[in-house]
Write a structure and sequence with these properties.
about 325 residues; 7 helices; ion transport; CaM-bd_dom
């Protein structure tokens, strides 16, 4: 479809295919009226008493010129009128050829009708061949009967049957020749159909090859296109990151606070009895060790009824 140019020529071909009779009728009538008006306008001031002085006379002149009749009762006197009549004659010959072609195409049998016609002709020829063969056998038997089986040979009757025998042979040969011609036409028609199908297949294969070549070229250019696209996106992303860093400034956003290191538990005093360690593990209260010098004073014990908020650590 990409190779078809949608111009005036294509439109005219389409119209001639869809409605040829209407197109030819409209074209002929339009040409007839325009040419008659042109001839009338060209010869209006040549002679007031001329036959082309009115529109009907001009239309008569154009019609006989268009149909290539040319009675000679009317002639144009001006060069413009003569040129119009010449162009009208040429266009009339072309329109006549188109009308003949359209009528012949309309009267042509379709493919199904041709198959039916060939089948009927084949059946008729087969019957004629059988009749001719039967006539040959009959005349052969009659000749044999009147020459071999008869006691007295009647030469006139024998010659009569011999003539009929030769006519039957000639008729049989002619019918067989017609059957051969019909078969040859059928084979030619089949060959033409096969050639048309082969041409259609070749065109389809060429179009498929062109599409495959286009797809191959597209696939070949795809890696480069993807690489260029990814490079452009990467560059744009880098620019966005740089712009964001530039807007944030040198201080930068506040980072997360570092976690405090866990305070190690105080080591056990040297020489502490083992049973105290076991009591600590079991959760039993033990007397507090003596405070070292310079250490802060321990908090007083909580009063009775006051909840103990401190948690014991093992």
């Amino acid at each position: 479809m990409t190779k078809v140019h949608f111009n005036t020529r294509f439109v005219m071909k389409t119209l001639m295919t869809i409605c040829p009779g209407t197109v030819l009728l409209v074209f002929s009538i339009s040409l007839w009226i325009i040419a008659a008006w042109t001839v009338l306008s060209a010869g209006a001031y040549h002679d007031a008493q001329d036959v082309t002085s009115n529109f009907l006379s001009a239309m008569w002149l154009i019609s006989i010129t268009f149909l290539s009749i040319g009675y000679g009762d009317m002639v144009p006197h001006t060069y413009c009128g003569k040129g119009v009549c010449l162009i009208t004659g040429i266009m009339g010959a072309g329109c006549t050829a188109l009308v003949v072609a359209v009528v012949a195409r309309k009267l042509e049998l379709t493919r199904a009708e041709k198959h039916v016609h060939n089948f009927m002709m084949d059946t008729q020829l087969t019957k004629r061949i059988k009749n001719s063969a039967a006539n040959v056998l009959r005349e052969t038997w009659l000749i044999y009967k009147h020459t071999k089986l008869a006691k007295k040979i009647d030469h006139s009757r024998v010659r009569k049957h011999q003539r009929k025998f030769l006519q039957a042979i000639h008729q049989l040969r002619s019918v067989k020749m017609e059957q051969r011609k019909l078969n040859a036409e059928r084979d030619v028609r089949a060959d033409v159909g096969l050639n048309d199908r082969g041409e259609d297949l070749e065109r389809q294969m060429l179009s498929l090859e062109q599409r495959v070549e286009q797809l191959t070229a597209g696939f070949s250019a795809l890696p480069a296109h993807l690489s260029a696209t990814l490079t452009a996106q990467h560059t744009a992303l880098l620019h966005l990151l740089r712009d964001r860093d530039g807007r944030a400034g040198p201080s930068g956003p506040p980072g997360p606070r570092p976690r405090a290191a866990p305070t190690p538990a105080p080591p056990a005093a040297e020489g502490q009895p083992q049973h105290q360690l076991l009591q600590l593990l079991r959760g039993s209260p033990t007397p507090a060790p003596p405070a070292a010098e310079g250490s802060p004073t321990p908090a007083p014990p909580a009063a009775e009824g006051q909840p103990n908020t401190s948690s014991s650590s093992c």
